[in-house]
């Protein structure tokens, strides 16, 4: 059974990988030298790494049927507090870098806990909770900094994490993100924690009745998303050497889009971390390829929008065909008064 | 990078790229137009890209993609003084010459040249305009985009410093429109409710000005409240002619673009470059907008 | 002292009074049938006594002690398991995951403490439980939401039967089951009873009720209106009590 | 039954009205002259009017269980095409204004139809479809204009619609929005069209099986949302005398937040237009009040975020109490494997 | 010529073969029972013949003509109504709205053409339909998702019975119903049959099947394995055929 389960998951994720591959091939043919160069590939991967860290947490949240709009702000606030504490500690070495990482993660964790408690215990809809904490976290970041970006990233962080390579063209930043993704995959798809995440998204009342501590688990899931946003905050600070206070206003939507492109349902119960990562690569690869091809900036938006819809359409169609649910793609799970499977 | 060395033998056929701070802004379009014609005159080609917002997290991937397409030199308006530092260094490590236009970096020495307007000076110029329009003094408000944008912050700071130096005027501080005209309108409406005697509003960018004008108009105080906007794109000029905005502080994007190309080509051809160039401002009002002095300061919407 | 007893349960939903002071009791090692017309309040009794909802009034006693169930977990910790009428399954999960949800078998040692589950053991356990019931679950890895009505009900019954140690509530457990599976469930009920567990069996099938139960509680409009020894009653009497044709609940044993 | 139905709906909406009233009262006490002035009230109402027009369409979409991220861009594109055609026609009179209105509405309708067809027929998740059309519509608007706002609103539009008053301090813009809202309320809560909208959100498969043309109805709902976005485009042009191309990036989220604050569930099947309107007034009233009270801008975000969560929390708690579903707020509808009612 | 006939129906879900060449037929004015073990494919037959899903193979004939159902609407237009096993109700809507969903009574005149419904007429119609069934729906204005299992099923049955003009499929229509309501549904089946409508009755209750039906089709593993006249068969024979104990489907009439 395990083999089957895994095979199914792989099958689902595979669809979207094929689409990403197709996009890569098209660009490679159109602009072989520029697009396929190590430098460019590295660029695409690096630029998607921080989003991937956020995407792992977002996948968990969305699998429970929730949503987290606050990730961008939490990232900023974590970066700000990390920068402040590193500046206070002073120095450019690993010690202060570690301090910053801890502060960022704790900040993110705290924000995530607030989200989780308000969603799970106060029963406020996740959209509202995280819209509120989005504003609040950003506001606090601005109050602390007076709205001016902080730039106090110690050199080791910038040189090693932000721009260092493990070997050759393999950036440390992406290696770290890959580790987070791998842990996320294991956690979601192979542990009890992940099982409960799916169960809550599938039918929270059923989970409650068989003794899953639904509230507590939801809090943990939002806390995890917050923690990862905090961790992304320190990565972001290392990469941009700036807290990018004003620069994260679309981060939440970009991450959510990646999650949904990757096949996770906004109604919960269905999803995969691997799909999310692929889903994040699709828009960033498109963007990169179109710049290389010299497509006008305005046209890029139009083309990216159209290709995005087309990609997800092809993915859906292939997936439906794989299930041989010929008449309705959603028939499978709507049988007993369930909702549309896909968002 | 090897290719660029080979290409630098002749003066022509240089491949240049321009990364705007944000796409579709009259300021950068004017800069682009001037740069394009300067490039053409020198026999070089210039491709232009830009992010959807003035935002380093958007500009970084665009720059990286542009670098991948291997131009010999890049003109770029960095959207953050430190965030763009490393990405631009990565471009120079690939053997690409970089010229900073409009905005700058923490350490501009990586670039062959940096050409910029002095935004704090622009803020000060805006206050001069308000002094002309409301000479009796009073309360003044700044409506800016959002915190953390170096250019608009510098404009606001220059303005506020100038206000503080003049006892006849009271600074009501900075409010942020988040680049939404509705929000700017709401802010100005509410601010007029709190301080009905505001005499001047300095709006640091287009939407702030637009929304501020709407708010003032809603309050029916067009005669009392003077609005000074920044930049001189067609939108701002129309607002000026319509009387919703009373003065504009115009930068010189054309000059920046032209200089940028000149410096880039000089760097590629191993000729001497000027490391730092500052450009000035023109205050455009209804009185001078149709005179040559005003006309030459206006931005273009297309080449 | 009864194993599980409730007195004067009240539960209102908005303006609908689902329970209006209902009594209930079940003893260890007996099968109590709970019957009544649609909407009489049977499932509501189950929800309150399994901790899945809280009463607006009335008292619950377990082994003589007053208890309050804050959550289903409280009831489960006392050994009370339930097959809900709506089955309470997670439709996107497979039958094995549903069978063990909340009771996962973990890997031994460190891996288990890290949250890794023993999937093989759970699969084998489920297979056995389903086979015991004769449940026709073919595809152990498909989402349960796509299975047939009877297959789903089979999983729910197998799950509850596996864990009950004191009381088991079966709210219309055979409604969707085939003939053979229904027989197996009736046998299971007797087997469980013989192990000393209190069984509460809700059904609209009077023959099954009379066949398997020791006592029968009849509910009407949110109250228990009568209670019989199964051996001493007839289908006609039960139907009369349910519909109110036989009013005054004269046949009640106590 | 009808009376009951209506009473229930009113009861639900009433909760959130009470919260809005509470907020108004607090500000009135803290800043009586400034806040309660007719001028200020008018300002709040006018600034919420355009959002309310968008909110009507968004409520329909969300009641079906969908989402529309493209409203802001569609508004911009409609305004751009209207401005272009009015400029081409020339003149400042009613004729050209009408032309503009028709062009804007048709543009919106066309965008809505594209959304609807992709959601209903191609089965692409609404989030992805409307994210795609968000980019595409904005891109087209920018290509047409070169990214520079157009200002060709004829004077009659600006003077009458944008800034005119019907009587006293009653702005025409808000009267128009009120009409749209009233039509929306009737359509959603009193006609078959609305009934089908709820039915699809409640259980699309059930609707399909009893012969509701689910696909066609979904297309109509997205088309309606597009049409209203187009109409909002001409209102926006009248009010700002500008197509505000870059100024609508948060419009979608603001409108969605209003809808959810108003008690509409993102899972579909539950909602009201009246609630949406109240839900839109809450953030704009808070914003206005805090500016009047002189709260620092950075603090405003924090406070608005916190008050937003608190308001929705109180609303939820009161509503739950009204239903006397004491143990779980959501027990009512989760009985048969249904999803969380709220959020 | 049969009223509704299917030959060699095939339907696969992923790797699960729900129907493997199943035949089916029903005539006007007769009650055909469709029986079989859990997962035998009964509900799948219903879904295909009501247009709710499309077959992967096989043919469907209505009054002798080959038909293809692209959607449930196609089947409904031919006068085929269905009570699905999962009921297919919209849980947030009240019983009246569910009863009339897709068949709303509009106001007369312009108002009706504008989309306004005659709520009073629909309420009265529902009340009458529920009363006929003896369905205990108390609260005509509450969401149906909050009603008891039997109440919900009552609404689904009343709805299908109201509109059927040629064929009615009843997929386990009495599974959740009380004793009285079950009797009423069996009476309703006879009444509908006597009006010349073809009735397809799916149930796991052999006594009910034998009581009400004219013919019995037995399904096993996705095929029809036997077909009997109800008058000529016994419970034992049926159970044997369902479980495969009696193999070779020797009792089949044709
Ligand atoms: N969550 C709820 N919200 C509103 N009303 C409810 C809810 N749950 C139950 N009811 C009502 O309470 C009454 C009793 O319901 P209950 O489910 O206990 O009946 P039951 O005896 O189990 O009936 P059945 O035999 O049909 O399953 C019914 O009238 C039902 O409509
Ligand atoms: N949507 C679906 N996806 C996957 N498998 C399905 C789906 N629907 C039905 N099946 C499978 O097809 C087989 C036949 O199912 P069906 O519902 O027709 O059985 P049934 O005879 O109605 O059983 P029951 O008596 O339990 O209702 C079952 O094995 C079931 O698991
Ligand atoms: Mg019940
Ligand atoms: Mg079935």
UniProtKB/TrEMBL annotation, chains A, D:
- The molecule here is called ABC transporter permease
Classify the protein's membrane topology as the record does. Answer: Multi-pass membrane protein
Taken from the record, one Pfam family name reads BPD_transp_2
Q: Does the keyword Cell membrane apply?
A: yes
Q: Where are the transmembrane segments?
A: 12-31, 43-63, 70-90, 96-120, 127-148, 168-188, 218-235, 255-282, 289-314
Where does the UniProt entry say this protein principally localizes?
membrane
Q: Which domain of life is it from?
A: Bacteria
Name its cellular compartments. Cell membrane
Its keywords, alphabetically, are: Cell membrane, Membrane, Transmembrane, Transmembrane helix
TrEMBL record, chains C, E:
The record, for InterPro entries, names: AAA+_ATPase, ABC_carbohydrate_import_ATPase, ABC_transporter-like_ATP-bd, P-loop_NTPase
Q: What keyword terms does UniProt attach to this protein?
A: ATP-binding, Nucleotide-binding
Fetch the CDD domains from UniProt. ABC_Carb_Monos_I
Q: Please identify the protein, giving its name as recorded.
A: ATP-binding cassette domain-containing protein
Identify the species of origin: Pseudonocardia eucalypti
Molecular function (GO) terms for this protein are: ATP binding
Domain ABC transporter, which positions? Answer: 4-246
Q: Does the keyword ATP-binding apply?
A: yes
């Amino acid at each position: 059974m395990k083999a089957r389960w895994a095979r199914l998951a792989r099958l689902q994720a595979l669809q979207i990988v094929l689409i990403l591959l197709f996009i890569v091939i098209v660009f490679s043919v159109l602009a072989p030298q520029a697009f396929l160069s190590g430098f460019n590939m590295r660029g695409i991967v690096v630029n998607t790494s921080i989003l991937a860290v956020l995407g792992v947490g977002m996948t968990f949240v969305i699998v429970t049927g929730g949503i987290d709009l606050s990730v961008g702000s939490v990232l900023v606030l974590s970066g700000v507090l990390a920068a402040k504490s590193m500046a206070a500690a002073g120095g450019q070495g690993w010690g202060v870098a570690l301090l910053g990482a801890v502060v960022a993660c704790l900040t993110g964790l705290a924000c995530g806990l607030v989200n989780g408690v308000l969603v799970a215990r106060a029963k406020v809809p996740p959209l509202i909770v995280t819209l509120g904490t989005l504003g609040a976290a950003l506001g606090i970041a601005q109050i602390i900094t007076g709205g001016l970006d902080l730039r106090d990233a110690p050199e080791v962080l910038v040189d090693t994490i932000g721009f260092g390579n493990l070997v050759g063209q393999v950036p440390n930043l992406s290696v770290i993100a890959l580790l987070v993704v791998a842990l996320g995959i294991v956690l979601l798809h192979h542990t009890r924690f992940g099982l409960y995440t799916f169960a809550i998204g599938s039918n929270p009342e059923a989970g409650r009745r068989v003794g899953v501590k639904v509230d507590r688990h939801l809090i943990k899931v939002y806390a995890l998303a917050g923690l990862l946003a905090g961790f992304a905050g320190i990565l972001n600070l290392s990469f941009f050497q700036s807290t990018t206070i004003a620069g994260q206003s679309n981060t939440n939507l970009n991450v959510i889009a990646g999650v949904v492109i990757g096949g996770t349902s906004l109604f919960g119960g269905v999803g995969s971390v691997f799909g999310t990562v692929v889903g994040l690569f699709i828009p960033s690869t498109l963007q990169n390829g179109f710049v290389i091809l010299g497509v006008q900036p305005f046209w890029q938006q139009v083309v990216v929008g159209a290709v995005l819809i087309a990609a997800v359409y092809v993915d859906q169609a292939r997936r439906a065909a794989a299930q041989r649910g010929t008449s309705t793609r959603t028939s499978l799970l709507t049988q007993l008064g369930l909702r549309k499977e896909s968002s | 990078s090897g290719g660029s060395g080979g290409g630098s033998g002749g003066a022509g056929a240089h491949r240049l790229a321009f990364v705007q701070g944000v796409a579709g802004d009259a300021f950068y379009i004017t800069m682009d137009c001037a740069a394009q014609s300067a490039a053409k005159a020198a026999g070089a080609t210039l491709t232009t890209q830009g992010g959807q917002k003035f935002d380093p997290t958007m500009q970084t991937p665009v720059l990286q993609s542009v670098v991948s397409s291997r131009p010999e030199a890049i003109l770029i308006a960095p959207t953050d003084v430190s965030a763009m530092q490393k990405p631009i260094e990565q471009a120079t490590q690939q053997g690409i010459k970089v010229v900073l236009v409009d905005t700058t970096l923490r350490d501009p020495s990586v670039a062959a040249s940096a050409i910029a307007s002095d935004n704090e000076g622009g803020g000060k110029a805006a206050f001069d305009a308000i002094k002309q329009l409301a000479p009796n003094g009073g309360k003044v408000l700044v409506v800016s985009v959002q915190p953390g944008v170096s250019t608009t912050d510098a404009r606001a700071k220059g303005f506020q410093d100038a206000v503080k130096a003049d006892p006849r005027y009271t600074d009501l501080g900075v409010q942020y429109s988040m680049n939404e005209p509705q929000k700017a309108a709401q802010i100005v409406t509410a601010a007029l409710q709190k301080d009905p005697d505001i005499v001047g509003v300095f709006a640091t960018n287009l939407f702030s000005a637009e929304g501020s004008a709407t708010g003032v108009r809603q309050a029916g105080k067009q005669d009392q409240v003077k609005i000074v906007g920044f930049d001189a794109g067609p939108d701002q000029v129309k607002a000026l002619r319509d009387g919703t905005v009373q003065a504009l502080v115009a930068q010189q994007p054309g000059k920046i673009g032209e200089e940028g190309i000149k410096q880039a080509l000089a760097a590629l051809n191993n000729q001497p470059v000027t490391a730092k160039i500052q450009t000035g401002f023109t205050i455009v009002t209804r009185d001078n907008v149709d005179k040559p002095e005003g006309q030459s300061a206006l931005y273009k919407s297309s080449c | 002292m009864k194993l599980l007893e409730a007195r004067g349960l009240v539960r209102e939903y908005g303006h609908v009074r689902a329970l209006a002071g209902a009594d209930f009791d079940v003893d260890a090692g007996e099968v109590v049938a709970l019957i009544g017309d649609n909407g009489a309040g049977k499932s509501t009794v189950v929800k309150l006594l399994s901790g899945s909802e809280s009463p607006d009034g009335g008292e619950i006693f377990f082994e003589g002690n007053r208890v309050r169930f804050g959550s289903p977990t409280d009831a489960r910790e006392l050994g009370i398991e339930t097959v809900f009428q709506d089955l309470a399954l997670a439709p996107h999960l497979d039958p094995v995951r549903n069978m063990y949800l909340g009771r996962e078998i973990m890997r031994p040692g460190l891996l288990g403490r890290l949250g890794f589950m023993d999937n093989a053991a759970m699969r084998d356990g489920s297979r056995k439980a389903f086979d015991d019931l004769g449940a026709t679950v073919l595809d152990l890895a498909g989402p349960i939401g796509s299975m047939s009505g009877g297959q789903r009900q089979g999983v729910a019954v197998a799950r509850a039967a596996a864990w009950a140690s004191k009381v088991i509530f079966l709210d219309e457990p055979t409604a969707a089951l085939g003939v053979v599976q229904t027989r197996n469930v009736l046998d299971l009920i007797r087997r469980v009873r013989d192990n000393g567990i209190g069984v509460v069996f809700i059904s609209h099938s009077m023959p099954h009720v009379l066949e398997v139960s020791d006592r029968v509680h009849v509910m009407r409009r949110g109250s228990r209106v009568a209670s019989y020894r199964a051996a001493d009653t007839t289908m006609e009497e039960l139907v009369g009590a349910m519909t109110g044709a036989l009013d005054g609940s004269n046949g009640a044993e106590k």
